[in-house]
Specification:
With 675 residues, the protein is mainly alpha-helical. The chain is 84% helix and 1% strand. The chain contains 17 helices and two strands. Its main location: cytoplasm. One of its GO terms (biological process) is cell differentiation.
């Protein structure tokens, strides 16, 4: 019903205008239904606009079938129902024609484009014996070149259509530019007439031209100057980075030892060899596959929504088949395959972990390099601008302790703020309740006043009380203000007198101190310069001594670690020697029970067990290989049998659904009457 509604609705619109309803459309004769189908096809391809009454039914069906194949229409029943589809199209059967109309009316613009392209892209079939002729072969080659040229031109045309440019907008722009051009020409003519009236205008024009040229040259030189400045700034930045790197490398070389350098270089070599030999070639191969896939997709013609839906259906079917095959394989897996799959999974997990760790290491190195570059740039900028150096060591620890104290204070304050906010919410809610009660009381009071005939009495009373309270407050404030001003004047006078009497001896002492300061200032500056020089020398000596102490501490730590390592190796070697002596005594013993506890006997027994297990496994592998071909054939036969039974089931269901009312269906061993 939904299909018929859609078909009738589309046929009643432009350009068909059939004026059908569901009853009239459903009661159409097969010839009329075929004529409607032909009208729809003629809307898609104008070559199909003919009267089917003037054509043989077989020719009509062949023409429609060819066009539907070109439009990539697929019958609902699939390949097995092609013959019934042809027969239904010849006789104008509704179950065949209705789905075709529904499919065509859903995608008329897309099918118009496909029919237009098919007129030029469907190649003519020329027999191979005719292509032996040079003229025909050359003509056919030119024909193929023209087809390829048409593909490229059509693709460019579609790109221009989808790029957003409109011919109307371009025409408006052209008209606007032509108008501006005319206005400029008129303006130039007016200026030329005005200049020609001036004496020596040629000389002035020449000077103006030279001025314009010089200004353009000045702009280009300014641009070049800016580029040179930018390049100079970038070169200075690179130089600073290189100097910092050189300084870091020199410090690392001064502090490091050959063993640590060799270890670091070996790690770098391993990492770089892994990147060059495994990771980067694999990524390059993946990128090449992606590029090839994208090139293949770009070279193919554009697909419509119907084709996309069809591809999605195929993908879903393929995924379901893959899942079914995986389930079947899991059901019939043997223990040997399970063991191998376990090892494969472990190997894949190790490979993935290795790749992830390598990527994390590379990202960490890049991040470390970026942070170091940013730190060096920030420190150099801070030093250039006269800023303080970065805090290190004990200062940083003190700063962290200070920040922790501030953090605890902040948490306390935040808790107090939360408590205050909660209390504020409670008070706000209380205020709202009191206001509601006050409003209710006011309304009751107003209703009582209205009943007694004295409306507005309470408002007037409140206003009078408020005015009297404000007046009394103002009077009190005026009295207090006058008293305060008189008292303040008295206090100020007494304070000024006291300050004068107290400052008079201090002023005398200040004069003597100023004279003494003028005498001692030069001597102070001289002593300060001497102190600064001495402090600078002591600071340099202190930094050298700190560097030496740091170096000696590192050497002591290295020697201590080396001592502990050698001591541990000594203990391990002694234990191994003792264990070897015990095993030697056990092997030389005459007691069989004692000799069986030797490691050599245990290893020999374990090796024998593993050899026997390997023989059993090899025998199982041999049996699997011998029976593989017969098992595969048996599995294929079962699959074919399953498909055959499914096909019989579908045919039976279809015959049962298409049987008319009262028709008897005869099957093997039974008859059925469909009511």
């Amino acid at each position: 019903s939904e299909q018929l509604k859609f078909i009738v609705e589309q046929l009643n619109r432009e350009p068909f205008k059939k004026n059908f309803n569901l009853i009239t459309f459903d009661s159409l004769e097969p010839m009329q239904l075929l004529q409607i189908l032909n009208d729809v096809l003629s809307e898609i391809d104008p070559k199909q606009a003919i009267d089917i009454r003037e054509e043989m039914p077989e020719q009509t069906a062949k023409r429609m079938f060819t066009l539907l194949g070109m439009l990539k229409y697929k019958p609902p029943g699939g390949i097995s129902e092609v013959s019934s589809f042809r027969q239904g199209l010849v006789i104008g059967s509704k179950p065949v024609v209705h789905p075709i109309l529904h499919w065509l009316l859903q995608r008329i613009p897309e099918l118009k484009k496909r029919a237009y392209l098919a007129r030029f892209l469907v190649k003519l079939e020329v027999p191979a014996e005719f292509l032996q002729d040079d003229v025909i072969a050359e003509t056919y080659h030119q024909y193929e070149e023209l087809v390829e040229a048409f593909k490229n031109i059509h693709k460019e045309c579609e790109q221009l259509k989808s790029s957003g440019f409109s011919t109307a907008e371009i025409r408006r722009d052209i008209v606007t530019m032509e108008e501006e051009k005319d206005q400029l020409i008129k303006r130039v003519e007016r200026l030329r007439k005005r200049v020609e009236a001036v004496s020596n205008h040629q000389r002035m024009l020449e000077l103006a031209r030279q001025l314009r040229v010089e200004k353009e040259r000045e702009e280009s030189l300014a641009h070049q100057k800016q580029e040179q400045k930018n390049q100079l700034f970038q070169a200075e930045q690179r130089l600073q980075r290189s100097q910092l790197q050189l300084k870091d490398l020199q410090q690392a070389a001064a502090d490091a030892k050959p063993e640590s350098l060799m270890k670091r270089l070996e790690e770098d070599i391993k990492f770089n060899s892994y990147m060059v030999s495994e990771k980067l070639p694999r990524e390059l191969e993946n990128m090449r596959k992606v590029v090839q896939y994208l090139q293949k997709v770009a070279s193919e013609p554009a697909m419509g929504q119907a084709e996309l839906r069809e591809l999605e259906g195929k993908i879903k079917e393929t995924n379901t088949e893959i899942n079914q095959l995986i389930e079947k394989r899991m059901v019939r897996n043997d223990p040997m395959d399970d063991k191998l799959s376990l090892f494969r999974q472990q190997a894949a997990i190790i490979v993935r972990k290795k790749e992830s760790k390598v990527e994390e290491l590379q990202e960490a190195r890049e991040e470390l390099a970026a942070v170091e570059r940013e730190l060096n740039m920030k420190s150099s900028q801070a030093q250039e601008q006269g800023g303080a150096e970065l805090i290190r060591g004990d200062e940083f620890k003190r700063y962290v302790a200070k920040m922790r104290g501030k953090n605890s204070t902040y948490k306390k304050k935040r808790q107090e703020m939360a408590e205050l906010n909660a209390e504020y919410g409670v008070l706000q809610r209380t205020e709202e309740i009191l206001r509601e009660r006050h409003t209710t009381g006011q309304q009751q009071l107003q209703s009582l006043e209205a009943q007694q005939g004295i409306s507005g009495y309470s408002d007037t009373q409140e206003e009078l009380e408020r005015v009297s309270a404000i007046k009394s407050e103002l009077d009190e404030m005026k009295g207090r203000t006058l008293d305060d001003m008189s008292e303040m004047v008295k206090k100020l006078n007494s304070v000024i007198a006291e300050k004068k009497s107290a400052l008079s001896p201090l002023i005398k002492d200040l004069r003597a101190l100023r004279q003494q300061h003028a005498e001692l200032a030069p001597e102070y500056e001289q002593k300060k310069a001497q102190y600064d020089n001495c402090a600078a020398g002591l600071e340099s000596n202190r930094s050298k001594l700190e560097q030496e102490v740091r170096t000696l501490r590192e050497e002591v730590a290295q020697e201590e670690s080396r001592y502990h390592y050698l001591n541990c190796m000594k203990v391990i070697t002694a234990s191994q020697i003792e264990r070897a002596a015990n095993q030697s005594e056990i092997n030389q013993s005459m007691d069989l029970q004692v000799r069986r506890t030797a490691l050599r006997e245990k290893y020999i027994t374990h090796t024998a067990e593993q050899d026997s297990l390997g023989k059993v496994l090899r025998q199982q592998v041999k049996q699997v290989r011998e029976n593989q071909e017969s098992n595969m054939k048996q599995m294929k036969m079962w699959k074919d049998l399953e498909k055959l039974l499914e096909c019989k089931k579908q045919c039976y269901l279809k015959a049962q659904s298409q049987a008319p009312i009262g028709h008897v269906i005869q099957d093997v061993g039974k008859d059925m009457l469909v009511l």
